[in-house]
Write a structure and sequence with these properties.
2 copies of one chain form a homodimer. Chain A is 46% helix and 20% strand. Chain A is of the alpha/beta class. In chain A, helix 1 (17-27) packs across helix 7 (170-185). Chain A is globular, with a radius of gyration of 19 Å. The two termini of chain A are 21 Å apart.
Chain lengths: 202, 202
């Protein structure tokens, strides 16, 4: 059986990453999503095990000690991280799995899973990024400026990724990611067993 | 403008490579095909400039001297080769170009064009390869054995390629190649200008 592959997906606020991934999972329900472990409290619209596993600080720190995280981060007093086991077990079952993570997390995962394929989602232009981050015009100029500057800091690190998908048209962006996933299964590494099979029989 | 990419396509007799490529060019007429230069005489069903440019031995030897070939080979007294100029000029115009070539030719081209993406087309199994090479049962066992052995020698070198496409279902194989072509345009190298554009405007 073919092993599944790990895809790291990042993109700044304004890239439309969440909408793209929601559409991708609706279209390809066989693709797994890596659920983050976090120590902050559950919010009203959240559900345990949907996007996050809500765990205690003690348990999170034990996972750090046991090297059970592919990456983690502390933000405003809470831990956020990607547990290793579900990712490894998905690929061993032959499932592809997507890890949605920021540029720092992507960097850490790449060091641990050297075969992971990384995809950066980009806004189509600076003007469109600014437009998307301005929202409905209810934010102050200062907040918009801060969002923009943080998005640009992430975009500077897009060069660390294997693939760059531009989200100009949502459907095209989703199809681009599907093409990247499928074509990676056609790489020599994933197809090697077929060569071996044909030669073995001769 | 995005530069075009070079795709090297190989596959043994029985892989169905020619049928796949014919269907691919019918489906994607924007993709260019590298026309080989050869010194043998034109056959009845052939046309100058279609699959081959028929040139003199003297001219071919001059091309070798001038390093105008990406690869070449001498077979039963005739030269066969891939001229460099049309390939480079296609990619500079933004066109993708496919070079259909054997495993030795692919090896030479990879050394000269390190960015070229190589695809090996495989039969789905040994049994099916044998079946396809047996043809309509009009060949002697000796000829079939020779074809099979030469196909297996090529398959042994499939591990030199970036991608392996299995031709079990013709339409799937054609789509696989299209996915490989499109996804390579999403690689960082081809998308770098978009990152630069967004950051330049900020």
């Amino acid at each position: 059986m073919n092993k599944g592959l790990v895809f790291i997906v990042s993109g700044p606020s304004g890239s439309g990453k969440d909408t793209i991934l929601a559409k991708l999972f609706a279209k390809c329900p066989e693709i797994k999503f890596s659920i983050s472990s976090i120590t902050r409290g559950m919010r009203e619209n959240e559900k345990e095990g949907e996007k996050y596993n809500f765990i205690s600080r003690g348990k999170f720190e034990q996972m750090i000690k046991d090297d059970e995280l592919l990456e983690y981060n502390e933000y405003v007093g809470n831990y956020y991280g990607t547990p290793k086991k579900p990712v490894i077990s998905a690929t061993e079952k032959g499932d592809d799995i997507i890890i949605e993570v920021d540029v720092n997390g992507a960097h850490s995962i790449r060091n641990k899973l050297t075969d992971a394929v990384s995809i950066f989602i980009m806004p189509p232009s600076f003007a469109e990024l600014k437009n998307r981050l301005s929202g409905r015009g209810t934010e102050t100029a200062e907040i918009i400026e801060k969002r923009l500057s943080s998005a640009l800091d992430e975009i500077k690190r897009a060069t660390e990724y294997d693939y760059v998908v531009v989200n100009d048209d949502l459907d095209i962006a989703v199809d681009d990611i599907i093409k990247i996933i499928k074509s990676n299964h056609l790489k020599l590494k994933s197809q090697k067993h077929i060569i071996d099979e044909v030669l073995e029989k001769c």
